[in-house]
Write a structure and sequence with these properties.
The chain is mostly helical and 180 residues long. It is built from 5 helices and 4 strands. The protein has a two-stranded antiparallel sheet with strand order 1-2. Strands 3-4 form a two-stranded antiparallel sheet. The protein starts with 5 loop residues before the first helix and ends in a 19-residue tail after the last helix.
Length: 180
């Protein structure tokens, strides 16, 4: 029955991808995707002081991974061929997300040292680099995504087999593209 209705498979794949992206986004928002907590961030007070010293307004809250949570989505353009991809939605998100997932070091320049001093944060004279610990996002959440996607596919296909002929229409004409 499913083999004779390829639209069912495409629709179920889109539903699974939507639910998968929600799991990833909620993992990023919680600061512990897949139950594995991110490395500790700079405290908000300290970060705000540094922001103000660098000439920015200084926000009241700094979410984990910044706005990268919004940069997770899915590409359903190949759903009719049986493939839907979930991931980063832009080249810059791939760059920043990969950098965060792998960890990185930043060279301490004179300008950066002055900004830290203006914020009331003392860096030792021999400090040449600031190290940011890795914050894996996709690997820890992959088991949860697999389980949610499989269950969503199964539920959606069973509903079609049981007589549900309605498939939700896209609320937007926008088609996202996922980058690697």
């Amino acid at each position: 029955l499913v083999a004779n209705n390829p639209k069912w498979i495409a629709s179920a794949l889109k539903s699974a991808a939507w639910k998968s992206q929600k799991v990833i986004k909620s993992g990023i928002q919680s600061g512990a995707p897949g139950g594995q907590a991110y490395a500790p961030m700079m405290p908000d007070k300290m970060r705000r002081a540094l922001d103000i010293a660098l000439g920015n307004t200084g926000k009241t809250r700094y979410p984990p991974m910044g706005r990268l949570q919004r940069a997770v989505g899915y590409d359903s353009s190949r759903a009719n061929q049986g493939s839907v991809t979930v991931g980063w939605l832009s080249h810059s998100a791939v760059y920043l997300g990969s950098k965060q997932q792998e960890g990185f070091s930043t060279e301490v320049t004179d300008k950066l040292r002055r900004a830290f001093a203006a914020a009331g944060i003392k860096l030792s004279a021999d400090k040449n680099q600031l190290h940011t610990a890795s914050r894996p996002t996709f690997p820890p959440v992959l088991p949860d995504v697999s389980a949610v996607a499989a269950q969503a596919m199964q539920d959606k296909l069973l509903s079609y087999i049981m007589g549900n002929t309605q498939r939700s229409a896209a609320s937007s004409g926008r088609t996202y593209k996922v980058y690697r």
